[in-house]
Amino acid sequence: MKKIALADLLSLEAYEAQRPVIRQAIMDHKKTRRVPLGPNATLHFEDYMVMRYQIMELIRAEKITADEELEGELEAYNPLIPDGKNLKVTFMLEYPDEAERKERLRQLTGIEELISIQIAGFDPVYPIANEDLPRSTEDKTSAVHFLRFEFTDDMIEAAKNGASWSIRSEHLNYQHATDPVAPEIAESLLRDFA
């Protein structure tokens, strides 16, 4: 999948003028890139369009114009774009009540290693979690994790040929599945294998 280059970024003025249209397009796009997993977890699948939007929003908020600073943002965000053989995910645990959140994050240590994506007919794929920095301790997990799922050519081919997808949490304290993944989401994720 294409990475974001400086030439792909709009000027602040151009972005401001187009922002309402871009925001609506992103909100529509994200609907096909979000998978709830039980009542308190969500997988947000990242891609070029989402990362470009996040960079443009950051540029807008911080009024970044220097090429050197922009290059730094590209270096930070481009690794979150799939490379054609994988899916990249922001995994979020969501508990609105602070006391419950603290307790549940203690109970869910290691959950980031126990999320799987399975293409029908193949073994589940488990993620490489938090490559940038550790987000969990022995005592608790983080509410946000960055996951990378690597797929074989055969898995990708089967998915492109219509095999169903499922996503699971296999943690003892949070066992939930989305099975099957909705067709419009699977179709969107297939574009990451281009």
Describe the structure.
By secondary structure, the protein is α+β, with helices and mostly antiparallel strands. It folds into two domains: 1-31 and 48-80, no CATH class; 35-45 and 82-194, Immunoglobulin-like (Sandwich), CATH 2.60.40. Helix content is 37%, strand content 22%. It has helices at residues 12-31, 48-62, 67-77, 98-107, 153-160, 183-190, and strands at residues 34-36, 41-45, 86-93, 115-119, 128-129, 144-150, 165-171, 174-178. The strands form two sheets. The protein has a five-stranded antiparallel sheet, with no helix packed on it. A three-stranded antiparallel sheet has the order 4-7-8. Helix 1 packs across helix 2 and helix 2 packs antiparallel against helix 3. The N and C termini lie close together (6 Å). The relative contact order is 0.17.
Task: Kindly estimate the percentage of residues that lie in beta strands according to DSSP.
Answer: 15-25%
Number of strands: 8
Largest sheet: 5 strands, antiparallel
Task: Estimate the helix proportion, in percent.
Answer: 25-40%
List the strand order in the largest sheet. 1-2-3-6-5
Supply the number of structural domains.
2
Note the run of SSEs as H and E.
HEEHHEHEEEHEEH
Looking at the overall shape, the CATH architecture of the largest domain is Sandwich
Give the CATH topology of the largest domain. Answer: Immunoglobulin-like
- Number of discrete helical segments: 6
Helix/strand-derived category reads alpha+beta
Uncertain residue ranges: none
The end-to-end span amounts to 6 Å
Instruction: Give the radius of gyration.
Output: 18 Å
CATH class of the largest domain: Mainly Beta
> How would you describe the shape?
globular
For the residues shown, what is the average pLDDT? 94
